Amino acid sequence: MKNNSNVRLFGIKDKIGYMFGDFGNDFTFIFASSFLMVFYTKVLGISASMVGVLFLVARCVDAFTDVTMGRIVDKMKPAKDGRFRPWIRRMCGPVAIASFLMYQSGLAGASMTVKIIYMFVTYILWGSIFYTSINIPYGSMASVISSDADHRSSLSTFRSVGATLAGLVIGVGAPLLVYTTDAAGNQIVEGGRFTMIAGVFSILAVVCYLLCYFLTTERVQIEPDPNAEKVSFLQTVKTLVTNRALLGIIAAAILLLLASLMTQSVNQYVFVDYFKNKNALSVMSMCGIVPTLLLAPFAVPITRKFGKKEVGATGCIIGGLACLALFFIHTDSAVVYIAINVIGYFGFGIFNLIIWAFITDVIDDQEVKTYKREDGTIYAVYSFARKIGQALAGGLGGFALGMVGYDSSVQVQTQAVANGIYNIATLIPGILYIGVGLCLIFLYPLNKKRVEANVAALKARREA
Fold first, then answer.
1. Residue 79 and residue 75: Cα distance in Å, rounded?
2. Can you point out the beta strands (E) in 156-257?
3. Which residue of 198, 318, 336, 435 has the fewest C-beta atoms within 10 A of its own C-beta?
């Protein structure tokens, strides 16, 4: 591995470009996380339990596609534009088209068998194949844009800001367009609008991906060593499953995604079925990004002083306590619900800003121990773990809705069901966020001192 000195220095252009990469990702990912279950249940009339089965099956497929993609990018000879960037150029079109195909409201009148088959095929095509083939290279790319620890932390921050901005566009705009209000004040889904919005978001995703491609530069060159000992896939897996740092961040990531994605998904039902206020859902989405944007300029200085592990654990525990407070007060006020959630966002918002820097620390730690650099493979294992969290979140959300009696065959739920939806949207995430903090404290070993030692060790090796 060596730094390419013939390219421009790392700067704001790389940060903005990397930000647009996650912006592109989340035009399809956040839209799916927040609205896909709503589309399947309220537009196509598929049961929430069957949607949960879909998510679990797709994650089984991801067990193969994620790691396979990681191995591919690690072993391929770099192209002129790098090892990872070319995949963004190649796959931005397919992932956008597959996303659009998932939201075809014209299938609402088809037989249930046809709808379920179409749901499985299009979702797996989008998430397990095309999204994987662009997300694994994109996530791995951070470690080759720069070898500097602060630069990588800033890339993580800008990536999270990109996700936040995408969340703003989707969270604020989509509810206003997807839902209409009937004479009784109930929020009704407009299926045709789903298809239109999905098409617009797919086009915007391609634009953002291309901006990422053209604005970023790979500076750390990783050439495969032809004389290196051949390491089998099983040997690599055996090494990774003994990496405590990787296992610790995986456990934290799964719990984090269970909490955050379940909250995104179930909040659609909370505001529509419990508060009966689609406008409040948009306000919630807008207020939810304020903490992230306010914290973004301070993320790198704070973590430089206190450490990523230490800051992340504290923030997640604060966020979990805010969710539990909402459960116990069981408010009827959407304003109170939003205000307390914002407090929580200040807690786990700081963790979300730095989360991608954790995995570059894990990659460095693995290299220190094994003398092998496996950015793509390690990121792929981490990505698969995150997808497990996504699947469990979708499955848990669907099964929880079924347990409280949610009926996808009707647009308006009973008050008892609405109360149950409120409970699962507050209690379960509260417990999970606290679990994230405990994982970082007791399982993840890369504290501030250890990370600094790894950076110094790798710097010394490369200078030697």
1. 12
2. 179-181, 187-189, 220-221
3. 336
Alpha carbons 135 and 120: distance in angstroms, whole number? 20
Kindly report, residue by residue over 144-196, the tens digit of the pLDDT. 898 787 898 899 999 988 888 888 888 777 877 877 776 666 767 778 888 99
Write the DSSP assignment of 115-161 as a string of letters.
Answer: HHHHHHHHHHIIIIIIHHHHHHHHHHTHHHH---HHHHHHHHHHHHH
Distance separating alpha carbons of residues 275 and 337, to the nearest angstrom: 10
Q: pTM of this prediction?
A: 0.74
- The first and second tokens of residue 250, run together, are 């995986």
Q: Determine the Cα–Cα distance for residues 378 and 371; give it in Å rounded to an integer.
A: 14
Mean pLDDT, rounded, for 260-289 = 84
Residue closest to 408 by CA, chosen among 42, 112, 52, 39: 42
Which pLDDT does position 266 carry in this prediction? 86
Instruction: Kindly tell me the number of DSSP H helices and DSSP E strands found in the chain.
Output: 18, 4
Helical (H) or strand (E) element with 438: helix 415-442
Q: Which two tokens stand for residue 215?
A: 């604005």
d(CA 403, CA 285): 26
Residue 66: pLDDT above 80? yes
460 pLDDT band, cuts 50/70/90, is confident
Paired residues of 261 in beta bridges: none
Residue 149 exposure: Cα atoms within 13 Å on the Cβ side: 23
Per-residue pLDDT band for 224 (boundaries 50, 70, 90) equals low
- Separation CA 359–CA 246 (nearest Å): 8
Q: Cα(199)–Cα(424) distance, rounded to whole angstroms?
A: 32
189 three-state secondary structure = strand
Report the candidate in 372, 85, 38 with the shortest Cα–Cα distance to residue 230.
372
DSSP annotation of 412 reads S
Tokens 């994230």 sit at which residue? 436
Which residue in 437, 21, 456, 7 sits closest to 210, CA to CA? 21
Least confident of 116-125, 203-212, 218-227: 218-227
Query: What Rg do the C-alpha atoms of the chain give, in angstroms?
Result: 22
Token reading at 64: 């193969």
For 255, how many CA atoms within 13 A lie in the half-sphere containing its CB? Answer: 24
- pLDDT bin (cut points 50, 70, 90) of residue 222 is low
Q: What share of the chain is helix, strand, coil (3-state, %, to 5)?
A: 80, 5, 15
CB 176 within 8 A of CB 415: no
CA distance linking residue 354 with residue 164, whole number of Å: 13
